[in-house]
Design goal:
This protein is an alpha/beta fold. The longest helix is centred in the last third of the chain and has 16 residues. It has one domain: Rossmann fold (3-Layer(aba) Sandwich), CATH 3.40.50. Adenosine-5'-diphosphate (ADP) binds next to strand 2 and helix 1. Belongs to the ABC transporter superfamily.
Length: 240
């Protein structure tokens, strides 16, 4: 579904991504782990072109996204992104936040969009919060609204960049549960995370990145119990 070949990215002289190769199949959940500064966020941002890669190819369903003729807006409609900071619109209600993108970009009528927003809020456990403003919600609830907002576009895949890193520890579980249920429903997901329990339980594949490289990848069971590379061993021994 998404195929990354020889992806590289430089900021000036700083080489942040070095020859990254990764194929993501439809329905697959890939977790990316690794130390801070290793290029994980830049990698996700290069996938949906929030950053321009310096080299390499990013293909989505066989089309090269770096091709000038490619409609990147279409890709962003189909592949949603959830960030560490949820950036909900403070002057819109929760339901309005969820409805906004389909109304604006898909010209869905408001009644239909509102109905859909309520369904999605129900799905993330927040139906009763539809009419309140985001600042009355906890961080974990706001992040679940952000997930509902991404789902409103009916994406085929979702990219998550440390969706629980900004949350108080007691709020992390509810967000991970929503992500877990999406994974169960077959959503294709690339998740940058420090939640090793989540990666172990939910990922089909774990990618360990360090210094701009994919150092090691494999089934979670193997990566967490028998990492082959020294870098992976050191990283995991520090956090597990
Ligand atoms: P991670 O998400 O793994 O913590 P990042 O992708 O955020 O890593 O960053 C990788 C490296 O790229 C870091 O050294 C960071 O300082 C650098 N970097 C990220 N974004 C920029 C930018 N816009 N300009 C310059 N350097 C950047
Ligand atoms: Mg990051």
């Amino acid at each position: 579904m998404i195929k990354i070949s020889h992806l590289s990215k430089k900021f000036g002289n700083l080489e942040v991504l070095k020859d990254i190769n990764l194929d993501i199949e439809e329905g697959e959940v890939v977790c990316i782990i690794g130390p801070s500064g290793s290029g994980k966020s830049t990698f996700l941002r290069c996938i949906n072109q929030l950053e321009n890669p310096t080299g390499g190819i990013v293909e989505y369903e066989g089309k090269n996204l770096l091709d000038k003729k490619c409609d990147i807006r279409k890709f962003r409609e189909e592949v949603g992104m959830v960030f560490q900071r949820f950036n909900l619109f403070p002057l819109k209600t929760v339901a309005e936040n969820v409805m906004m993108a389909p109304v604006l970009t898909k010209h869905m009528n408001k009644e239909e969009a509102h109905k859909k927003a309520l369904e999605l809020l129900d799905k993330v456990g927040l139906k009763d919060k539809a009419d309140v403003y985001p600042n009355t919600l906890s961080g974990g609830q706001q992040q679940r609204v952000a997930i509902a907002r991404a789902l409103a576009m009916e994406p085929k895949a979702l990219l998550f960049d440390e969706p629980t890193s900004a949350l108080d520890p007691e709020l992390v579980g509810d967000v991970l549960d929503v992500m877990k249920s999406l994974a169960k429903e077959g959503m294709t997901m690339i998740v940058v995370t420090h939640e090793m329990g989540f990666a172990r339980d939910v990922a089909d594949r774990v990618i360990f990145m360090a210094d701009g490289y994919v150092v090691e990848e494999g089934k979670p069971e193997r990566i967490f119990t028998a990492p082959k590379e020294r870098r992976t061993q050191t990283f995991l021994s520090r956090i597990l």
